[in-house]
Amino acid sequence: MGTHFSRSVAEGRAFMQFIDGRSVDSLSGERIDVRSPSDGAVFASIPASTEADVELAVKSARKAFDEGPWSRMPAVERGRCLTRLFHLVEKNGEELAALESRDTGKPIRQGTADVTATMRYFEFYGGAADKIHGDTIPFLDGYTALTLREPHGVVAGITPWNYPMQILARVIGAALAMGNTLVVKPAEDASLTTLRMAELALEAGFPAGVFNVITGYGRSAGAALSSHPLVDYVTFTGSPITGTAIQQAAAVNNRGVTMELGGKSPQIVFADADIEAALPVLVNAIIQNGGQTCSAGSRVLIEKPIYEQVATALAERFSKLVAGPHDADLDIGPLVNVAQRDKVAGFIAAAQEAGIPLLAQGTVHPDAPEGGYYQPPALFGAVDPQAALAQEEVFGPVLSLFPFEDEADAIRLANDTEFGLVAGVWTRDGARQHRVAKRVRAGQVFVNGYGAGGGVELPFGGFKKSGHGREKGFEALFDMSATKTIVFNHG
Ligand code: NAI
Ligand code: MG
């Protein structure tokens, strides 16, 4: 199965990290094996950094911020650097897609879609860099008051393994457009495109120290980075529990944070909805990236009169879904690692044990390599709204269905988890579209559609346990800067 370049890219390569514009190994020389989730085999390695490496990277970013030229460069010049990175990603797109796909197991078309989104981030923030400005404020007679948007300084970005390149791009785009400098620590399971991006950033002309990458485990490199006193701001995407640890670490220095911590996002399907239009979207929202998506649509709430009809149609689609290696480009790839596969399999087993009906399950392709981390998609319904499956983030290809009585019941169910990231509303009733969109607690609400991870220009972030702060769009530029007010007394 599969003969794509993504099967051999980076074979045997010992990757280096990037500190102060140079490609360097970790000080200890220790390495982490890089495995392909499609067959479980080791194909490359990355440095395993610890506190001493973090120290060098943060000092480099500090110096680049404090001494310039980056933070003092005209905004348009910073934007041009990002635009050059856009062109370099385009030029190296096939390699980046292959690298991402082999490293994470995602189907190659998803890797390709991630390259497109990465380019969009650099395009958007490259253009936005010189279009954000402060205000003048009517104040007392004899005074002029104005505001500037100033960068925080050194930003630490700790990123996850599900969309490593896209999430890196949204951090780079917003942080660097505003004139911050960066130290990024990608996830130990998916660091390759971040390391490749550091090479491209050098080629794009970012000055040394503006964008540093250290690789290593969260408990060592990640912990040292988030607690470092020379870091001014921390942005994190990942699990709520690690988000708590990072906020506590940053709190020791009273630093600001942006937290994007996942969800349990509902899609509400009313009886008057265009069901044929909804069905493929409902399936894709949980199948995309094997369900390893913070904004995955993992709960579908269905109005009672159409429950059986929608459940049957979804079951038919789920039973046809096939998992296989990334380069076979089937419905889903393997999950990212053994722990994630076992976690998802554990949710499925526990749900079955609790008697929740398994309506349909996909299959693993018979030619999929033995050692891969495959998990066939599963559809459950009706799910008890208090079950673990209904409340916890599975982060895998598992969809739960819930019948509801009426609009009030739908809103109550939609809001009845600790999360609040994204929601979908399917109805032809215009007034109801507005009512429900306003009452659902979620950072993004899609009406008659759903965009898991989509829309670089759309502000994105959570309520409740899904986190705080906003990424993407113009709003991310506010998170990545602070307002300075200047008051002139001119009499
Ligand atoms: P994680 O949240 O622990 O890892 C994300 C990043 O944080 C990685 O770069 C990791 O090295 C780093 N990290 C871990 N511990 C740290 C610490 N103490 N200090 C600083 N950095 C630290 O996620 P993990 O363990 O890979 O996956 C566990 C679960 O998290 C998944 O099963 C899934 O449910 C959820 N998850 C959610 C994501 C999202 O986008 N919302 C992304 C990845 C995982
Ligand atoms: Mg990997």
UniProtKB/TrEMBL annotation:
Domain Aldehyde dehydrogenase, residue spans: 28-486
Catalytic site: 260
Q: Name one Pfam family in it.
A: Aldedh
- Name the InterPro entries on file: Ald_DH/histidinol_DH, Ald_DH_C, Ald_DH_CS_GLU, Ald_DH_N, Aldehyde_DH_dom
Keyword annotations: Oxidoreductase
Superkingdom, taxonomy of origin? Bacteria
User: What does the sequence similarity comment in the record state about its family?
Assistant: Belongs to the aldehyde dehydrogenase family.
- The name on file for this protein is Aldehyde dehydrogenase family protein
Q: What broad taxonomic lineage does this protein's source fall under?
A: Bacteria, Pseudomonadati, Pseudomonadota, Alphaproteobacteria, Hyphomicrobiales
